[in-house]
Design a protein that fits this description.
The complex is a heterodimer.
Chain A (H helix, E strand, L loop, with lengths): L4 H5 L9 E4 L5 E4 L4 H27 L6 H25 L5 H5 L2 E5 L7 H9 L1 H13 L10 H16 L10 H6 L1 E5 L28 H4 L4 H11 L5 H17 L8 H21 L10
Antiparallel strand pairs in A: 1-2, 3-4
Helix pairs in contact in A: 2-3, 3-5, 6-7, 10-12, 11-12
Chain B lengths: L7 H26 L6 H24 L3 H18 L6 H19 L1 H24 L4 H4 L2 H4 L8 H7 L6 H26 L4 H19 L7 H34 L6 H36 L3 H29 L1
Helix pairs in contact in B: 1-2, 1-3, 2-3, 4-12, 4-13, 5-10, 5-11, 9-10, 9-11, 9-12, 10-11, 11-12, 11-13
The chains are: A mainly alpha, B mainly alpha.
């Protein structure tokens, strides 16, 4: 489903475009695609956890001198499970998160908007070996792939495997092969805090003397939604000298544009203008007149 | 001055903010202590609050230009959506569902591809057998040295008979069995993973396994040991070769999705087929475990050819019933 400009604008853009998922209630939600750096970090963390797990299981047995066949059989099975099913088990138990993903705020979701199922988790982790570990070994020791193969076979295989490893960097969803065959995506866990509403007076300046500014409809007909939200961002910045300078500059610009001549206290003026402008644009929106940007 | 109370978006926010905050608190609790930490009452409230947040988001998108509220609601709805629509099936239930319904059902549904890879395996075996009969030197092209060991075309009858015999060291056998399992399971998972790229590698893998098998069998023919070698291979071979064919079929199935995506597009086809394929591979890994136990223990302890054939026959009947009857019923009921 295509997102409208309005919905897209609610997520701060950084990196690839956010992915739109349609919930079963038919509401479109946007998720930021996980950053490849964070995914690599999560992978390294998980590998470390795997290693610690294996060591922890082995430690008690290392005290015994000779390992019987049954014990080494047990080890082989444990290695097999840890190596091949660590990701699958934890990801399905923690709803798409592993130790590393949790730490870095990542999560696996189903691309169709439904719940992430066990078979999806298994599918996306089946190809992990050839996507991550085989390419690494190819980088360091190309011959290890097929020891007896002629050089041209090794070359083709190495290129193929490396292309596979590069796949996440070549599509806009940053999807591995495993993500493609499982129909999954890795997203950054959404985090957003609710700030106070700017049309309310900033709690910090409540005791400042009240001032009243009135704007004529013509003065509010100049700016659009984009400018309104730029102003919102500026007003929401934490107090600092730089913020005060920025606000002063913005106030000068607005005053020039709307022919404002009376003297005005900068934060109060901007807050009043924000409120009036938002009311004006929201009223227009209700009447089906959505103005994205300023006209001139 | 414009009064804030005249703004619909402001009143809207004031009226609903409490339920947003309540949902936020529930989400924080789930995040910290897991979904099981919620009380019964909280479990009922979570989906209700989620729907409130969703409808708030929809309304906000049409009436509000407060970016902070829009971003917040979108994040809140997204976070609760991930919790509300999480997979809540328990482990035991999931395993039972997999064994009785999904695995046999998927194999039954993919029976055409499975039959193809089984035939490929048979064709590979026949080719390997006849080619090696014709030119014994080909044996080493088909059978890797580490696998062959003593068993070469030049081996004497006594050596071959000894290799088909028994071992009684249980301790060594358990290690042998788990090594076999580890190796076989990894090879078949890799065959699936490679197979998804067009299906060709999966088909090739099945074929070359057939060649190896055929060549291996053929060196026993001049010594009149054909009955014995099959008795040695089949008790676990029925299960293991079937599992291998299943993995190949799963890879082929996904590979075909790239080539013939159908009307819903390539991404959709690959995602759907990938999940089906993964089901089959997971089941096949379980079959590999059974095969390794049979290979590691049964074959090494039981020497009687008749008993070996009986075991081979019963596993064949078992799998046919499992996939044929149970799989068919699962498909029909689905």
């Amino acid at each position: 489903m295509r997102s409208t400009a309005n919905e897209g604008a609610t997520v701060q853009a950084s990196g690839p475009a956010p992915i739109a998922l349609v919930t079963p209630e038919h509401v479109t939600l946007h998720f930021a695609i996980a950053d490849p750096g964070a995914r690599i970090g999560a992978l390294l963390l998980d590998l470390a956890v795997q290693m610690v797990l294996i060591l922890a299981i082995m430690l008690p047995f290392s005290l015994v001198q000779a390992l019987s066949g049954a014990v080494s059989a047990f080890f082989i099975l444990v290695f097999f499970v840890v190596r091949n099913f660590y990701f699958t088990l934890i990801e399905s138990h923690w709803q798409g998160r592993t130790v590393g993903k949790r730490r870095l705020g990542l999560r696996v979701v189903s691309r169709d908007g439904g719940p992430l199922t066990g078979d999806q988790v298994f599918a996306r982790n089946l190809t992990r070996d050839i996507e991550v570990f085989v390419p690494l070994s190819v980088l360091f020791a190309p011959d290890s792939l097929l020891p007896d193969a002629p050089p041209w076979v090794t070359l083709i295989l190495a290129l193929w495997v490396l292309a596979l490893a590069a796949l996440p960097f070549c599509n806009r969803h940053r999807a591995r092969l495993g993500d493609l065959i499982a129909g999954t995506l890795v997203i950054t866990e959404p985090q957003a805090a609710l700030d106070f509403d700017l049309v309310e007076l900033d709690p910090l300046q409540r005791d400042a003397p009240a001032a009243s500014y009135t704007f004529a409809p013509a003065q509010l007909a100049i700016y659009g939604i984009r400018e309104l939200q730029v102003l919102e961002d500026a007003l929401r910045r934490p107090p600092s000298d730089a913020r005060d300078k920025l606000l002063a500059a913005i106030a000068e610009k607005i005053k020039a544009k709307i022919d404002w001549t009376e003297p005005a206290d900068t934060p109060r003026f901007l807050q009043a203008f924000y409120t009036a402008q938002r009311a004006h644009l929201e009223q227009g929106m209700l009447l089906g007149n959505r103005r994205e940007e300023k006209l001139r | 001055m414009e009064n804030a109370n005249n703004l619909r978006s402001y009143t809207f926010r004031r009226e609903r903010e409490d339920s947003w905050r309540a949902l936020e608190a529930l989400l924080a609790k789930v995040d910290r202590d897991g979904i099981r930490s919620l009380s019964m009452e909280e479990r009922y409230r979570l989906p209700a609050l989620y729907r409130v947040a969703l409808s708030s988001l929809s309304v906000a998108r049409t009436i509000s230009l407060d970016r902070n509220v829009l971003t917040y609601l979108e994040g809140l709805a997204a976070r609760s959506y991930l919790v509300v629509y999480s997979n809540k099936q328990g482990w035991l239930e999931a395993i039972r569902d997999f064994l009785t319904r999904r695995f046999p059902g998927t194999v039954y549904r993919l029976r055409a591809v499975v039959l193809t890879t089984v035939l490929l395996l048979a064709a590979g075996t026949l080719c390997g057998y006849h080619a090696t009969r014709h030119d014994p030197d080909l044996y080493f092209s088909f059978v890797p040295e580490w696998l062959a060991g003593e068993r070469t075309p030049a081996a004497s009858r006594e050596e071959l008979v000894a290799a088909l015999g028994a071992q009684h060291d249980i301790d060594g056998l358990s290690q042998f069995a788990s090594q076999l399992f580890d190796n076989n399971a990894r090879v078949s998972m890799a065959s699936f993973a490679l197979g998804v790229l067009g299906g060709l590698p999966a088909a090739l893998l099945v074929l070359t396994n057939g060649l190896t098998l055929g060549a291996f069998v053929s060196i026993h023919q001049p010594h009149g040991l054909l009955t014995e070698v099959w008795a040695w291979l089949l008790p676990h071979g029925v299960t293991e070769l079937l599992a291998l064919a299943l993995c190949g079929a799963a890879g082929l199935h996904v590979g075909l999705g790239w080539i013939l995506p159908g009307r819903h597009g390539r991404l959709h086809a690959v995602a759907r087929r990938g999940r089906e394929g993964a089901m089959v591979v997971l089941g096949a890994v379980g079959m590999m475990l059974i095969a390794a136990l049979l290979e590691g223990f049964f074959r090494q302890l039981v020497v009687d050819t008749g008993a070996r054939y009986a075991m081979a026959g019963s596993t064949a009947v078992l799998w046919l019933t499992y996939f044929g009857l149970l799989g068919r019923r699962a498909e029909g009921g689905a």
